Amino acid sequence: MSIPSPSAALRLRTDALPEKDRIEIMREVYGRTVLKIDVDPQAPINVDMTLRGLPGIGIAIGETSQLRAHRSASLIDTDDAILLVALAGGSVMKHRGSEETVDGCQALLMRGGEVGISQIRPGGLRFVNMSFSMRRLTPLVGNADAAFMRPLPTGGGAMRLLIDYVRAVQDLNTDEPPELNSLAATHIFDLMALAMGATRDAGEIARGRGVRVARLRAIKADIVANAPQLSADEIATRHGLSPRYVRKLFESEGTSLSDYMLSQRLARAHRMLNDPRRSGQSITALAFEAGFNDLSYFNRTFRRRYGTTPSDVRAAALKVQDDR
Predict the structure, then answer these.
(1) Domains of the chain by range and CATH?
(2) Looking at the whole model, is its pTM more than 0.85?
(3) Which distant-in-sequence residues (6+ apart) come within 8 Å of 267 by Cβ?
(4) What is the pLDDT of residues 235-258, one digit of tens each?
């Protein structure tokens, strides 16, 4: 995969191309130049993916319609490891003299330095595709060869953390400082090594570094989406961790689980107070919906966080609406 420079993101969409030129541009530009594959569309082609480069890592996330992709010897310019994760749909991979089917909730690791064929099945494929520098990955893994062309489950463990972390990284701004991109790449290598079977030393480092960061990111995302409904113990249970370990993850960032949950509930209440569609609901109702059971506590913490009262925020939002 020929990826953008570190931190840059590039979106490839066939529907943004002239219809009469889509197949040819996909073959020559997207296929041979960017993805380093020969592409043979077998139906009206529809590809939408975003590429991002990190040090030693290429990331492609998106979806494609049915097609056949072939990596020929003339296009091989790297010995990177290629990980295909099927989020939905499926693909048949022919590589190293063997054939494996990758369905939703499965992943497959291949060598980018060898010829191979990918057959996207009817219905298409929604995917996460990653390339890893073997020079950086090999020292972290006990037996790298044992992980190639072996279907890997994605429902839990290091692979689930890897997928969630990579998807979150893909959503970051493209102008992140170089040191943050390098740190994200380190965490991704940690998680990939654990999914493949890390050496003992690398595994201990990864569990204290990449896994910790990925778990914290996943827990934060869960809180953002479900803070009003979840207690601290429920969050720990959902992630298969002890409440004490979850609290220590937040303490490692100089904060606490309770403070983070409070900030997300306050942010949710603030958004609702600014939403003109919620103007008919009482502030008490919105406070309870945001997860507060004590109105005086809500008012006190809201004013401390935003320097104003919930009533003033709503009044300002309604004035803006009236002035339009």
Answers:
(1) 9-152 (2.60.120.10), 226-323 (1.10.10.60)
(2) no
(3) none
(4) 888 888 888 888 888 888 788 988
